[in-house]
Write a structure and sequence with these properties.
Layout (H helix, E strand, L loop, with lengths): L2 H11 L11 H7 L4 E5 L5 H8 L5 E5 L3 H11 L5 E4 L2 E3 L3 E8 L12 H4 L7 E11 H4 L8 E5 L5 H6 L10 E7 L10 H10 L2 E12 L2 E14 L10
Parallel strand pairs: 1-2, 1-7, 2-3, 4-6, 7-8
Antiparallel strand pairs: 5-6, 8-10, 9-10
Length: about 240
């Protein structure tokens, strides 16, 4: 037996598998029979378009608070009968909140920028402050209680507030994707290990990671990455096909 084959045999005997193909998010959704994705921080719908192009055909509900951006989101989802959108933010409160609208609208955030954020190359310059509608995940979740739900959160430093407003809903979710920073562009953002601890205490285990952007001052180092979490109790029950 060759050394490579022997190594594979040892790894398999320990319950693991060596793969050349790396499972992606849509494969994760299929493995959990997800039929609804809640897309929080949708911008113009780039995330929904990506999962569609990779083969996800279930329902998507996208949330975008900035009115002018929502207009573009609404046009993008109008041609897809399984894709709906809401003009609102998701957080810890119900009512209205101020959001810093950046030149690059994908960088807009309810959180304030750090000095690094203000000096970044990602067009984070705030061009105005809007008042937008905000609700909690728990307040909207009853509408989706009969679905198999996956939550995606990309809210530029506001992710923990979204999750804290969904303490009851988190118990029902089958998976979560968070964009987590290694270099902070926004104030009050949790550290990477704090996010992992929060998710572990909420009943989730890290399942997949994907680089998002690299740090302009150190181009070989990650700035942010998408982290996909699975329910801890189901980790040994689902196998990819």
């Amino acid at each position: 037996m060759m050394v490579k084959d022997r190594l594979k045999s040892i790894v398999r005997s320990a319950g693991y598998e060596i793969r050349r193909h790396h499972p992606n998010l849509v494969e994760f959704l299929h493995s959990r029979s997800i039929n609804l994705v809640l897309d929080v921080g949708a911008n113009e719908g780039q995330f929904a378009q990506e999962v569609r192009s990779n083969g996800y055909t279930g329902k998507v509900v996208s949330f975008e608070p900035v009115a002018e951006v929502f207009e573009r989101l609404e046009k993008n989802c109008a041609i897809d009968k399984n894709w709906h959108c809401r003009n609102m933010a998701i957080g810890e409160t119900i009512g209205t909140v101020e959001i810093n609208v950046s030149k690059n609208t994908a960088m807009s955030s309810i959180a304030n920028q750090t000095e690094i954020g203000r000096k970044s190359i990602y067009e984070t310059d705030v061009i105005r402050v809007d008042k937008v509608r905000i609700a909690t995940l728990d307040s909207i979740y009853p509408e989706f209680a009969d679905d198999r739900v996956f939550l995606k959160v990309d809210t530029q430093g506001f992710e923990q507030h979204v999750l804290r407003g969904g303490s009851n809903s988190l118990r029902r979710l089958l998976g979560v994707q968070l964009e987590l920073p290694l270099v902070h562009l926004y104030e009050g953002t949790w550290k990477f290990d704090e996010a992992l601890l929060f998710m572990r205490e909420a009943g989730f285990t890290l399942s997949q990671v994907r680089p998002v952007t690299y740090y302009s001052r150190d181009p070989v180092s990650l700035l942010e990455m998408d982290c996909i979490f699975k329910r801890t109790e189901s980790s040994d029950e689902v196998k990819y096909h």
